[in-house]
What does this fold into?
Amino acid sequence: MGVFSLSAIDLFASAMGAFIIITIILMPDYQKEVRLEGHLAYIDSMAGETEAILNDTELGIVSMTESLSSARAREMDLQAEQEIVSSELETIRAKLQARNDKPPPPLPTPVETEEELGSNLVTFRFLGLKTDKTRILLLVDMNKYLSEHQALVAKTVVRALDSLRAGYEFGILGFKQLDSGPQYQRWPEDGSLVEMNNKTRAQARRFVTNLAGQFEGSSSLKDAFAQAFKTPAEAIILISDGLPNPTYNGGLPPRALIQDIVLSNTRGIEIHSVTLGDYFKYKGTVEFMENLARANAGSFLALAQ
It folds into this structure.
């Protein structure tokens, strides 16, 4: 009464055995595929995380670069401020140290008589400064340390103008050094020389009067003489307190600055120097101005009031 015959049971058993054998054979491949899919999914997730990290890193690098640039710019600003403060402190220290120095002896009063300078007649006299040149540039220092002596500066320039005879050629160049760079006040405005007459003398006097209130900053004699040497002047009269700050003169100390000016004076222009103010309080002032004039075939003069 069996439902299946022995032959059918044998067939089923053989089929089941074959299925089991095939399953056993294919099972490793199936496991590999399952594991591979898992690996691929993990790799995809890792790639996403890596890309996010790279994006964050790039943003971080950009931010760090900007911060570094800002820090460097700030460092340069601080260095510049430090140099300015240091130079000011050096100047003040020199003034304080020089207060104990004895004032130089007063200059002899010049005798206004006709005389010969070599083979040339001396045609211009200004408080002891003498020259036979007829093209003259007045180079006026306008740094802040001369601000308390503005009246003396104006008076000195006017006295020089009054000493010029009709027919002379002259010009005025005021100079000062600000944080933005050197600044110049020229008369006439084109920087040339004009013939002396009653009209030009009056115009020059007004120009000098208008310089009041504009004394500020420091001064660069190196740059000022570079401008002065471009003019057709045959003689330059420097009116200054005679305290050159190396910071604004190419880092040159006074002696080296004189040598630099001499080398730049390729046309052999006479340079006369007039020191104004409390020159006897400042160490090295008289020495610098006197040596500058002597090295350029000029004369030296000091005015305290």
